[in-house]
Amino acid sequence: MVKVRFAPSPTGYLHIGGARTALINWLHAKKTGGKFVLRVEDTDEERSTPEMTQAILDGLSWLGITWDEGPHFQSHNKRIHQDLSYKMLANGTAYRCFCSKEELERRKNELAKPEEWRYDGKCRGISKEESDRRALAGEFFVIRCRIPDGRIEWDDVVKGKISFDASQIEDLVLLRSDASPTYNLSVVADDYSMGITHIIRGEDHISNTPKQIAIYKALGIDPPLFGHLPLILGPDKKKLSKRHGTTSVIAYKDEGILPLAMFNFLASMGASLDEDRCLAREEIVERFELQKLKKSPSVFDRERLNFINGKLIGGMPLDEIRELVVPVFKKLYPFLPFPDDKAVNLMRSRARNVPELATALYPFAADDFYYDEKVLQKLNHESVTKNFLGLIYKLSSIEDPSWSAAEIEKALRAYAEERGIHAKELIHPSRLFLTGKGESPSIFDLFEAMGKQASLKRLERGLNFLNAG
After folding, report:
1. DSSP 444-464
2. Which one of 113, 161, 237, 242 is the catalytic residue?
3. Cα–Cα distance for residue pair 24/22, rounded to 1 Å
4. At what angle do helices 259-270 and 50-63 cross, to 10 degrees?
5. Which backbone phi and psi does 318 adopt, to 5 degrees?
6. Are 442 and 342 in contact (CB under 8 A)?
7. Spatial contact of 194 and 69, defined as CB atoms under 8 Å apart
8. For residue 233, which of 295, 293, 300 has the smallest C-alpha distance?
9. Residues 383/421, Cβ–Cβ less than 8 Å
10. For residue range 18-40, what is the model confidence (pLDDT) as tens digits?
């Protein structure tokens, strides 16, 4: 059975790259009927906090990523990690290294290029008897893995065959002098004890993989399958970071991004779904194939995320949209009544996120909004002052039960024809007076959704504003 894991460090929020990794693992587990394990790698005691752990769990839950096992905490498995290193020490695939930090630093600085230093294997040749004697005498030591000669290779499920010359990998430390396990030992021990079959993670871990394979082989264990996802880049084609804006997944919730939109967006950065519309999670699972994971970096395109989010807002059931937007609207405008469903249904067609929709609904609840100065300057003031009083009268003659987009359009175009002007001379100012902006959905739909009395009131206000100027 397939068993995958997501293993974040609780030293910060769940970021975009981590969320993409978690999602790809989750999709593979769901597609194959396998299990998704959540393991919190909290061995950095100084930086790991319960608050960050909870933030990561909240981020995953918000996305809809559930786990079948866990959360397991790596710090609870210290004894398992230590036991593996002692097993390697006993079978000769690991050895004690008695070199002090000061001694290692001195040998490093003796090189022409200190930055190219790798442990030189000085303690490799110490006999077991001498090693045991020095350890019993109380000398400090670390335990190092004996990297075998030759090449370390694996068939990466994302990138294909990857090969390292073992001579370029130093004998890595497994256990520090205080008996605390290092990262690579802890990861191998946990993945093995948990029965992980596939390790799918970011390509920044490629350099760790040959070290971990060496540990597996030293223990006589077949390593799991490895797959390394390409980087996520910012618009400048550099690795995504805080300089590109929000990188914490949960922060997008506050920015009005819906979890399913983010789920789709992250899935599209990892796998080729061949679809522009917002898919249900079940559809994404059905389309997902491990063999089709993207091999090249993806660019974090905020506009595409906004597009997907807007598509989702436009297609969701109206009652679900109301549940999302009402709290935001009430927070922004606590003393205003929330507009009716006609207004919500109309304005959501252009909203890219929930706060944007809440803001777009303001003119339906109040008429004290400002007019866009650039649009105002483009108006033909003379035409408006000459024709709008008659337009208001014409529209007011429509009976309340007949107030509809079709009737309003018929009346406006008929009035324009009577006055010998183009309909746009009435449409553009009407849009500004109804919303304060130069863009909106169909002006006739806007009139209908706003209602007769509110529409006429806003047209009168706009006309008075121009006359007063």
Report:
1. HHHHHHH-HHHHHHHHHHHHH
2. 242
3. 6
4. 90
5. -60, -35
6. no
7. yes
8. 300
9. yes
10. 999 999 999 999 999 999 999 99
Task: Clarify whether 242 is annotated catalytic.
Answer: yes
The DSSP letter of residue 143 is: E
> Are residues 6 and 36 in contact, defined by beta-carbon separation less than 8 angstroms?
yes
| E strand or H helix at 204 | none
Structure tokens at 212: 């971990």
Enter the tokens of residue 450.
């706003």
Rg of the Cα trace of the chain? 32
Instruction: Express each pLDDT in 319-341 by its tens digit.
Output: 999 999 999 999 999 999 999 99
Q: Take residue 364 and report the two structure tokens written for it.
A: 């339906």
Q: Which of 311, 308, 343, 306 is nearest to 325 (CA)?
A: 343
pLDDT given at position 448: 97
pLDDT in tens, 215-245: 999 999 999 999 999 999 888 878 876 665 5
Three-state secondary structure call for residue 327: helix
Helix (H) or strand (E) holding 255: none
pTM across the whole model: 0.88
Instruction: List the structure tokens of 145.
Output: 């893995």
Q: Do residues 155 and 62 make contact, with C-beta atoms less than 8 angstroms apart?
A: no
In 3D, which of 238, 252, 203 has the Cα closest to residue 15? 252
Q: Is the dihedral of CA 174, 179, 182, 184 positive or negative?
A: positive
Token representation of residue 271: 């796998």
> Does the pLDDT of residue 101 top 70, yes or no?
yes
Q: Which residues pair with 94 in a beta bridge?
A: 145
DSSP string, 402-443: G-SHHHHHHHHHHHHHHHT--THHHHHHHHHHHHSSS--S-H
* 102 CB-contact burial (10 Å; exposed 0-12 / middle 13-18 / buried 19+): exposed
Helix, strand and coil content of the chain, in percent to the nearest 5, comes to 55, 10, 35
Burial (Cβ within 10 Å: 0-12, 13-18, ≥19) of residue 46 = exposed
